[in-house]
Design goal:
The complex is a heterodimer. Chain A is mainly α. Chain A has helices at residues 9-16, 20-41, 47-61, 72-85, 87-91, 112-122, 126-137, 142-149, 153-171; one strand spanning 97-103. Chain B has helices at residues 3-16, 37-58; strands at 19-26, 102-107, 112-116, 124-126, 131-134, 140-147, 155-162, 170-174, 179-186, 193-201, 209-218, 224-230, 234-241, 246-252, 257-265, 268-279, 283-285, 291-295, 304-308, 316-318, 324-331, 337-344, 355-360, 365-370, 375-378, 384-387, 391-394, 400-402, 411-417. The chains are: A mainly alpha, B mainly beta. At the A-B interface, helix 2, helix 3, helix 4, strand 1 and helix 6 of A face helix 1, strand 1 and helix 2 of B.
Amino acid sequence: MANTRPLGDPVVRAARSGDTRAVEEVVRALANELMPLASALTGGSGDADALVGDTVSRVYEKLDQLREGGAIVPWVRRILVRRFLDQRRWSLRRPQCSIEGIEGSTSLGTGAELVDLRQAVGLLPRQDRALLVLHYWQGLSIAECAQEMDVPEGTAKSRINRALGRLRERVGEGER
Amino acid sequence: MTDLERQLVELFMSDSRSRRVDRVNVGARRRNGLGSLAFIGGVAAAALALIVAFSLLRGGPEPVPASSPSPTGSAGTVASPGPSVSAAPSPSIEAVRPDAQHGIITRGGPGGIVRTEANPAPLASMWPIQQLAVTKDGRRVAYIRRSFAATATPADQLIVFDTATPDVQRTLIDFQAFETTGGLVWSSDANDEILIEVDKRSQTIPLAVDFSSLRAVNADTGASREIARATNALLYPIVWHGTTNTGGAVETGDGGYATSYDYISGGNLKRSPFPQPTGAFAISADAEGQRVLALGGITTPRGVMWWPFDRFEDKHELKPADGWDVSTAFWRAGTDEIVLFASPTTKSASGLGPRIEAWTTSDQRRTVAEVAGPLATVRVDGTAAITTSWNLVDLVTGTVTPLPAGDGTQTPQWAVKF
């Protein structure tokens, strides 16, 4: 489960009042918060930078509406997932903020099994991939996944099951 | 957890750490946050417009957390989009306020906390919560804790606690490795039973279940008895009367939608198919367990349907006004009212914002208040609603009072009483 680090009230308050450094601090904090999820969703690719950039741009545009202590992180996480699901919208949009990412402390897993699995996950519909990331890596329950993606709980459950079935077919877990 | 699931965790873990933020480029602010009062009004209007626009784009509202000047309105001052009755309160009525007797259970990631309305400090925490149910008086809680240990299959536990001592949590049942639990509800009478769905995973067919069962569990001893079983659908409990062994559940089929309502009596299931597929998660019973409410339909606009728990054939449908959709609905305890979150879906409703409404079972409607975020829950005594954007909405006067949101990681989900 990724940790959520709440932004401090004074910073948000300062950002809201137009303090440029505070704005940058808020955007940077959110970008750091979102990057692991974006990387997991996009398979560790550079697409994560654009996805995070697009998401924090939306927050940036709405800074005036944020009140200190608000549930910013869960809110932006949800925005990020929805932007990921709607690739067309975020890739065609000029973001107000851009993120330049670099390789992290851990490089992509290169074991044969993980490479095969990454390929197989990459072939899944975005919604299925997002559900798997939210459920297995973020640790959200099925109900939370459903809420996060605005689908019925049963749909989330059946999509996860179907996605696992497809992955099994492609990576041949059943044969091991 | 299977090999595949473990590899998925490893893959996502690896991918999530493979990239970090190096530089952030922030564009020029389009406007100064220290603008004029007129500008503040503009922001509020723009926020409202954004919410409406986003609802239209997404088919559902995306709440802005703790948004600035909440577009609140007192009852009677907001035009109701549907057939409506006056909701103007008597000026002498004092609005309900957050207090220490009413509590909230929140969700934040897989876990949650117990807190009072007035104070965000956690009184106890729960991790992780799979499903949760609260008694009708709000003083007892049961939840499913599911652990995904790296070397084991998912292991479910049924945990109970009293809100008087929320940090004293007792494991009532450790489920078997081949069992998975679904929903759970407390008995609506006074016998302290929990009706829980338990399905047995197939040992031979991947992803299949051999059967889905409903079990009544004694909340003090953990002793359980099977009430009903289905082999070709997953059951989801809705209501239970332990003293008479009667209740209701829904069956879910492909896609997870509820396909039928099952009246339970004497261990038998009397099936009544839904007129259209309905999300199982959006079906609930009132505190007394006498009426069932469903937020219906896959396509918008959605309406609600209610029926006596033992007579689905007596169902009543209530639809939103043209250009409106409802997305969450709860019974209001002690009244004949259903509390809903309604949002405009078409231009014909432009100029009006999302709001909480109250509809009686005989379809008298009133607007309670305009709010930015959807309904999260309703107090167990029916006096107020709580929104996901941390507002307490008095269901009589329409007064909206911000609740302290805490560290911003939690979302209100269930109401309890201390």
